[in-house]
């Protein structure tokens, strides 16, 4: 089942990447890994760096995909984003944390801008 989930995750990330590019975002990184965690997509939206978590589901039957982004997951993303900012010396730039939900059966993408904040 892990391979199955990995396939859907990668497919969802590919769809989310194309979606962001069409909106004018510049993709900087995909699957950025540091300190044992990962950020699916790092992009630039005008003057902001956007850290994007992608959640893919076949449908909304069992709730919204974004509900899988727990407080623990948010903390991991923020830690990894901090590592990226330090690595790239991006100290004077606005950052944002978005979630993109991809629903395959509905062929729907839901982009939640500023889904969570630095705490």
Automatic annotation (TrEMBL):
InterPro entries xrefs: UPF0102_YraN-like (IPR003509)
Assigned protein family: Belongs to the UPF0102 family.
Name of the protein this chain belongs to: UPF0102 protein KQI68_09665
> Pfam family example for this protein?
UPF0102
Where along the sequence do coiled-coil regions lie? none
**Spans traversing the lipid bilayer:** none
Q: Which domain of life is it from?
A: Bacteria
